[in-house]
């Protein structure tokens, strides 16, 4: 099972990367492959390829600011949350995804 996502926050520094790391670590805990693109102060890093997006059962997007290239996820099931929630609730998110898909 694969989940992809994109994290971004208004300042583009800590929370963008903390949310990405939390989701990846929680994915490992639940046996879910997680690929996260970050849109932070250093620009876009770990850009998602179309193959990863197509293979994903769902997409996780932070909703603190607009995500660049969001149209890539058209037709996919999308979960939108603030980066703070992605950090603190990453285990619950992955547990729910595992149960749902």
TrEMBL record:
It holds the Pfam family PTS_IIB. InterPro entries: Bacterial_PTS_Sugar_Transport (IPR050864), PTS_EIIB-like_sf (IPR036095), PTS_EIIB_2 (IPR013011), PTS_EIIB_2/3 (IPR003501), PTS_IIB_fruc (IPR003353). It comes from the Bacteria. Residues 1-99 form the PTS EIIB type-2 domain. One of its GO terms (biological process) is phosphoenolpyruvate-dependent sugar phosphotransferase system. Keywords: Kinase, Phosphoprotein, Phosphotransferase system, Sugar transport, Transferase, Transport. SUPFAM superfamilies: PTS system IIB component-like. GO terms for cellular component: plasma membrane. PROSITE patterns: PTS_EIIB_TYPE_2 (PS51099). One of its GO terms (molecular function) is kinase activity. It comes from Longibaculum muris. This is PTS system IIB component (Fru family).
């Amino acid at each position: 099972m694969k989940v992809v996502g994109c994290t971004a926050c208004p300042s583009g520094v800590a929370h963008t990367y903390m949310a990405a790391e939390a989701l990846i670590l929680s994915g490992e805990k639940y046996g879910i492959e997680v690929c996260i693109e970050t849109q932070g102060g250093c620009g876009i890093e770990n850009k998602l390829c179309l193959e990863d997006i197509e293979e994903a059962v769902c997409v996780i997007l932070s909703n603190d600011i607009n995500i660049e290239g969001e149209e890539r996820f058209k037709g996919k099931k999308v979960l939108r949350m603030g980066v703070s929630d992605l950090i603190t609730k990453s285990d619950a998110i992955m547990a729910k995804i595992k149960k749902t898909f």
